[in-house]
């Protein structure tokens, strides 16, 4: 462990360089193999399978990849669109637009389609996160390649990372974090503040595009770490010496990132269809205290029946380290502390403060233990109403703890290899690492066969029933629970068939309580009727008043054609297609049969 949190790598001998390259290749191949293992269910049939617990988010990110590439190649605004949520459109700057991914991978999306592009990015995200952390550790923080490999692979395939692999292309882009850490500490170098600030500013802009919430958490964690480290008595002299260069570099970073992100930030905070705070309940989406000692679903321990239901959903197992790993992390901290000089203890102290602060903040407004809510208020209750913070889910703050544990594991292994202990102690440490880490070995994500995109869409037949740029809607209307509309649209955009718009959609927009956001638009009668039929299998009673309300909705959305596929995907429950057909027939009369869909022409074309 270095005497400061970051040091430049020293020159290496040719023999050491060869060993390093072999280790680099080995770790990279292991990380890639693990990433393919975790996503193997999708690789069986990328176009025909979906992630079981989060098919809606998968459909959303596939749509974002198709739309982003289409927008850039057609000179359209990639951060605002009227193709969904007609007529108001959607502000993608307040959503997770992943514009950089969409642009970089646009050729692949056009070549092989959004589903496979989504899978490629997801797999690379997992592997790259492990490799990036390994690189930072091996080149700048520890001497042992084994130590760096253990730390990097743990962080890359930690419970939180694997749970977010359930379709979150933003949160699995953890490779951004070690790069940000590296470039922040490089700002200490005298004489290079302009170049270093420019590079960090570009990196911040990329990170904002891919994972704005993750960037926010990283900035908070780095700011806290740097403050605690610099204020420690052992580091005050060094901190004062590097402060001018550091501040100059940060100023350049702010200018560069601010210039690139000026328009996205304006859209985010002042643009149309913005909102303040999400519609997610911060109590529900907070970390249960007992979750830190629990095991995740997608792990060997979870497969053995030791999993719990302490997370709000399977994509948010942000801690779930298991009790043995928590004990091991404390043991590593004690080992390192006892062998450390004052400056090394300053680094450990800063890491410990970051871990404790973010752990406590992750508990949300009030503490929960083993699924039971208490009346004990938590610090997040004081911060959760602040701008920006009110848009964050407190449970995700636990993700910051994962790299701290990974660093402690790497530092401890490095220390044990540099200063060997007695044989009995070495065996005890080896057993401790095995008991803590083996149960957390990831298992593949659960996948399910998803309904195919109708031939009506894939053949391009839809163009005969919708005017150029006109509005088509699937039944039921596209939402997070009914993602077909955006999947169809993504296919049409990626295959250069042209554009059709849809009402509603899966996005975050205004309309929630107290000016907060909500998923999708505020419901209207037509959408509610179709949702009722899809869920319950019972067509509603249709009166003349019902038809008038539906006609008003059709005019509001400018819908020309309503389409019902033979198989409709429900992300949370099975959909009753027959009840939908009967409902639409009551409203609009008998449908046309076109290719493999039922179709109603309801507006001018």
TrEMBL record:
InterPro entries: DUF6311. It holds the Pfam family DUF6311. Keywords: Membrane, Transmembrane, Transmembrane helix. It comes from the Bacteria. The chain crosses the membrane at residues 25-43, 90-110, 116-137, 144-162, 193-210, 246-266, 319-336, 348-367, 387-412, 424-442. Residues 78-423 form the DUF6311 domain. This is DUF2079 domain-containing protein. It comes from Micromonospora radicis.
């Amino acid at each position: 462990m270095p005497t400061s949190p970051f040091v430049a790598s020293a020159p290496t001998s040719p023999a050491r360089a060869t060993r390093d390259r072999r280790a680099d290749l080995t770790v990279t191949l292991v990380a890639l193999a693990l990433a393919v293992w975790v996503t193997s269910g999708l690789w069986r049939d990328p176009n025909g399978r979906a992630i079981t617990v989060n098919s809606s988010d998968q459909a959303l990110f596939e749509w974002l990849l198709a739309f982003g590439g289409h927008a850039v190649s057609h000179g359209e605004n990639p951060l605002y669109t009227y193709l969904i949520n007609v007529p108001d459109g959607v502000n993608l700057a307040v959503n997770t637009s992943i514009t950089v991914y969409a642009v970089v991978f646009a050729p692949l999306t056009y070549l092989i389609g959004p589903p496979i592009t989504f899978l490629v990015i997801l797999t690379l995200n997992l592997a790259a996160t492990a490799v990036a952390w390994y690189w930072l550790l091996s080149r700048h923080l520890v001497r042992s390649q084994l130590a760096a490999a253990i730390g990097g692979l743990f962080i890359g395939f930690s419970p939180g990372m694997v749970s977010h692999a359930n379709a979150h292309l933003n949160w699995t882009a953890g490779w951004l974090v070690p790069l940000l850490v590296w470039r922040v500490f490089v700002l200490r170098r005298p004489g290079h503040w302009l170049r270093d600030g420019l590079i960090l500013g570009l990196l911040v802009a990329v990170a904002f595009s891919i994972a704005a919430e993750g960037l926010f958490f990283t900035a908070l964690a780095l700011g806290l770490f740097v403050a605690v480290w610099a204020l420690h008595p052992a580091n005050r002299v060094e901190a004062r010496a590097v402060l001018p260069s550091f501040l100059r570099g940060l100023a350049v970073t702010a200018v560069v990132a601010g210039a690139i992100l000026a328009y996205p930030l304006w859209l985010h905070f002042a643009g149309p269809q913005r909102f303040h705070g999400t519609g997610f309940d911060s109590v529900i989406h907070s970390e249960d205290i007992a979750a830190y000692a629990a095991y995740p679903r997608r792990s060997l321990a979870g497969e053995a029946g030791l999993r719990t239901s302490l997370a709000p959903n399977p994509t948010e197992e942000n801690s779930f380290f298991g009790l043995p790993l928590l004990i091991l992390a404390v043991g590593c901290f004690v080992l390192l502390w006892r062998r450390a000089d004052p400056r090394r203890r300053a680094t450990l102290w800063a890491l410990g403060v970051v871990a404790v602060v973010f752990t406590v903040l992750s508990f949300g407004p009030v503490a929960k233990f083993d699924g039971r809510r208490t009346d004990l208020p938590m610090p997040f209750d004081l911060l959760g109403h602040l701008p920006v913070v009110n848009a964050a889910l407190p449970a995700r703050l636990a993700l910051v703890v994962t790299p701290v544990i990974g660093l402690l594991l790497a530092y401890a292994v490095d220390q044990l290899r540099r200063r060997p202990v007695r044989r009995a102690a070495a065996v005890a440490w080896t057993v401790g690492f095995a008991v803590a880490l083996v149960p957390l070995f990831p298992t593949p994500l659960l996948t399910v066969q998803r309904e195919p995109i109708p031939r009506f869409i894939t053949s391009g037949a839809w163009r005969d029933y919708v005017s150029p740029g006109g509005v088509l809607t699937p039944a039921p209307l596209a939402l997070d629970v009914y993602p077909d509309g955006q999947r169809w649209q993504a296919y049409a955009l990626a295959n250069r068939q042209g554009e059709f718009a849809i009402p509603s959609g899966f996005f975050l927009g205004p309309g929630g309580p107290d000016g907060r956001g909500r998923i999708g638009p505020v419901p209207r009668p037509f959408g509610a009727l179709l949702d009722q039929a899809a869920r319950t299998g019972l067509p509603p009673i249709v009166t003349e008043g019902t038809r008038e309300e539906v006609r008003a909705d059709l005019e509001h959305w400018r819908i020309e054609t309503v389409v019902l596929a033979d198989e409709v995907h429900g992300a949370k429950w099975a959909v009753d297609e027959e009840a939908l057909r009967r409902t639409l027939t009551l409203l609009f009369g008998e449908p046309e049969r076109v290719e493999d869909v039922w179709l109603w022409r309801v507006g001018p074309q």
